[in-house]
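Risk register update: the risk of archive-format incompatibility is retired. Evidence:
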Amino acid sequence: MALTERELHSAQELIKGNFLLSMESTDNHMTRLAKNEICFRDHVSTEEVIRQIDAVTSEDIRSLAAEIFNPSTIGVAAIGRVSEKDLTLDILKC
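Archived output:
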């Protein structure tokens, strides 16, 4: 299944909107500043965050999805009566 440019743009706009709305909260704003200091030892501006969101491409998402959903790196845990056939990774095959 391919990610269309329209879907990508829509997702980017949603993320940017949520991010900017979260900055309305003093608590969220201060938490973000603290995380920037702890994780990056620097201030990452709102403009830089927006620029980075806009820079994400469909290929970036496909590449990350292939890395995350690689059947050779997925672990499965089950509790209860589960047969081996119930634990297949066929859902990851396209």
